[in-house]
Amino acid sequence: MEILYEKVPEADRVTVCAADGLVVYDSAPISRQTGRYFVSQDVLAALSGQDIFRSAFQNEVFVSQMTVPIIVYGKVTGVLHISQYDSEQGKILLDLHTNLLMASFVIFLIALMLGLMISVMLTQRFTEFLKTIGIFSAGNYDYSMPVRGKGEMAEMAGKLNHLAEILKQTESSRQQFVADASHELKTPLASMKLLADSILQTPDMPQELIREFISDIGDETDRLSHMTETLLRLSKAEALGRQNTVIELAVVIRRAVRMLLPLAAGAEVELRCVLDDGCRIMGNEDDLYQIVFNLLDNAVKYNNSGGQVIVSCSGQDDKVCITVKDSGAGIPQKDLPSIFERFYRVDKARSRETGGTGLGLSIVAHITERMNGEISVESEFGAGSEFTVFFPSASP
After folding, report:
1. What is the reported pLDDT for 345?
2. Which of helix, strand or coil describes residue 154?
3. CA–CA dist 308, 300 (Å, integer)
4. CA angle, 282 as apex, 280 and 283 as ends, to 5°?
5. What pLDDT, on a 0 to 100 scale, did the predictor assign at position 364?
6. SS3 letters for 242-253?
């Protein structure tokens, strides 16, 4: 037994138990257990021939315990239990534990501050979005939301500003349309009121003059009715949801030409067709008829006596085109960019003579755009104009 004790270096406590668990040696100077029974799971396991090792951090001290059987001639005769208490390693573990707690606390504070900062930034950004939407809802489209940095928020701000620009243009167009329509409608109403007041305020007015004034009132009424119908057609031209079918261009063009032959004959204008059969497009037949009718109507009305209008249709690759060419007065170059605007008239005096409202070409442009088409014009002042409308072909 003495040799065994010498092989146990620097153990803080050594305990030796007999095979029955009785402590025969205990190196503890104070709580010596010699003469008592030492019964534990480790001792029982060692008595069965197992080697047990445990380590733990307890009371700020790192404790290591080893329990091994004492075997003599192949027989377990006792148990050796060694305990070592390392306060230095315990202090190291305690300091590490404290440092980890401090580091965790600091990381938690940093994460909390970052989370609060991000939350405040997002809240401010969403507040700006709500404020901007409120401003736009009130009709103020001149306001622009600040675009900061990059990312989804900046992209959303940019798109919101772009939407405001579109709404601003739409509102401007609407206001201009209302102003132009009010002005155009006010003119015949003012003329009618002036004529009616003249009749009422002149009791001795000759009957012939009264009939002339009443005839003028009838003309202004017809003009007002025509203008209202044209505005309704323009509103329909800008509406969506029309049913589309396959349309034969030549059939629709011939129908429009038949309707305008009396007008052309009265104006001494020759109206000719050069049509290729088999040109088909996908669209609404009434819309296409409106396009052809308006172009031919303008070509006849603003032509010269003895002039001619040629309407043709043909296929070009995957497109078909309708061309209306006249020998009329033509359009000055400075007016070409504006002829598709509402109420725009090149020759206002002649437009009033012919009953023009300045809405025909605007209707044509809106319908053409809705049908995925394109319209172009070439004109020489004093020599005539040529309008060409392209549509995607529906032919095989």
Report:
1. 61
2. helix
3. 8
4. 120
5. 85
6. CCCEEEEHHHHH
Output the CA–CA distances (angstroms, integers) from residue 322 to 19, 246, 253, in the order listed: 116, 16, 9
What percent of the chain is helix, strand and coil (3-state, nearest 5)?
Answer: 50, 25, 25
Q: DSSP for 49-104, please give it.
A: T--EEEEEEETTEEEEEEEEEEEETTEEEEEEEEEEEEHHHHHHHHHHHHHHHHHH
Tell me if residue 284 falls in helix, strand or coil. Answer: coil
CA distance 30 to 272: 130
Distance between CA 327 and CA 267 in Å, rounded?
13
Write the burial class of residue 89 (CB in 10 Å: 0-12 exposed, 13-18 middle, 19+ buried).
middle
Long-range contacts of 348-354 (CB under 8 A, 24+ apart): 350/302, 354/301, 354/302
Q: Count up the domains in the chain and report the number.
A: 3
Separation of alpha carbons 276 and 392, rounded Å? 16
Render pLDDT for 339-380 as a digit per residue (tens, 0 to 9).
877 666 665 444 444 445 567 788 788 888 888 899 999 988
Q: Closest by alpha carbon to 19, among 4, 1, 37, 41?
A: 37
150 and 103, same domain (yes or no): no
How does the average pLDDT of the chain come out, rounded? 79
For residue 320, the SS3 value is: strand
Left if phi > 0, otherwise alpha if psi is -120 to 50, otherwise beta: which for 33? Answer: alpha
Indicate whether 255 and 370 sit together in one domain: yes
Map tokens 């309708």 to a residue.
Answer: 322
Using DSSP's 3-state secondary structure scheme, residue 232 falls into helix
71 Cα distance to chain centroid = 84
- pTM over the 0.90 mark: no
The identity of residue 184, as a single letter, is E
Q: Clarify whether residues 150 and 218 are in a common domain.
A: yes
Q: Which tokens sit at 301?
A: 């009305």
For residue range 208-234, what is the model confidence (pLDDT) as tens digits?
888 888 887 887 787 677 667 766 665
Whether pLDDT at 128 is above 70: yes
Asked whether residue 263 falls in the same domain as residue 384, the answer is yes
Q: Could you tell me if 249 and 322 are in contact, meaning their C-beta atoms sit under 8 angstroms apart?
A: yes
Residue ending a domain, choose from 134, 150, 184: 134
